[in-house]
């Protein structure tokens, strides 16, 4: 799987660890940055990752900021992106099973390394259930197209 990974300055340390984890897991990684502690605007990074997911350049994306919330809001402005912050095993699993989540948003401030590794592994390995959930995801896509995105 090809995965774009991006962060703002508050998620830069975690982003680096995520890139290493994904490579160990055999994934093809596109590292968007940020690569330092200088302040950077998270919407710029979310847009870069979101556009790559939207166009199919990558299969999925992972974004990290202080809480995961800002990245999520920004990424969801890109048509075709279904982003959400996940903070435990259940949200990581159900985000895939029920919502076919294609952009995982994580908190660089509140999640520990072992938990993040577990969340990413769950998120990567969990399939979309389809069925009634596919109908709902299709309705989300309809909302995007009706609202000019």
Brief characterization of the structure:
Helices cover 48% and strands 17% of the residues.
Total number of beta strands: 5
CATH class designation: Alpha Beta
Mean pLDDT across all residues, rounded? 96
Shape: globular
Largest sheet: 5 strands, parallel
SS field, number of helical segments: 6
Structural class: alpha/beta
- How are helices and strands ordered from N to C? EHEHEHEHEHH
Cα(first) to Cα(last) distance is 26 Å
**Low-confidence parts:** none
Number of domains: 1
Your description of this structure?
A 5-stranded parallel sheet has the order 2-1-3-5-4, with helices on both faces. The chain has 6 helices and 5 strands; from the N terminus they run βαβαβαβαβαα. Helix content is 48%, strand content 17%. α2 crosses α3 (69-75) and α4 runs parallel beside α5 (113-125). The mean pLDDT is 96. With 149 residues, it is of the alpha/beta class. The chain has one domain: Sugar-phosphate isomerase, RpiB/LacA/LacB (Ribose 5-phosphate Isomerase B, Chain: A), CATH 3.40.1400.
């Amino acid at each position: 799987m090809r995965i774009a990974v991006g962060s703002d300055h508050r998620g830069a340390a975690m982003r680096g660890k995520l890139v290493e984890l994904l490579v160990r897991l055999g994934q093809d990684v596109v590292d968007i940055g940020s690569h330092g502690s200088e302040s950077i605007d998270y919407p710029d990074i979310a847009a870069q990752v979101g556009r790559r997911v939207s166009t199919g350049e990558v299969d999925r994306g992972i974004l990290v900021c202080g809480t995961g919330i800002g990245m999520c809001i920004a990424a969801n402005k890109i048509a075709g992106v279904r982003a959400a912050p996940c903070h435990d095993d259940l949200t990581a699993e159900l985000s895939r099973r029920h919502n076919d989540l294609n952009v995982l948003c994580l908190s660089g401030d509140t999640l520990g390394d072992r938990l993040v590794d577990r969340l990413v592994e769950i998120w990567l390995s969990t399939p979309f259930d389809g069925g009634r959930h596919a109908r709902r995801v299709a309705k989300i896509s309809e909302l995007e197209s009706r609202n000019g995105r």
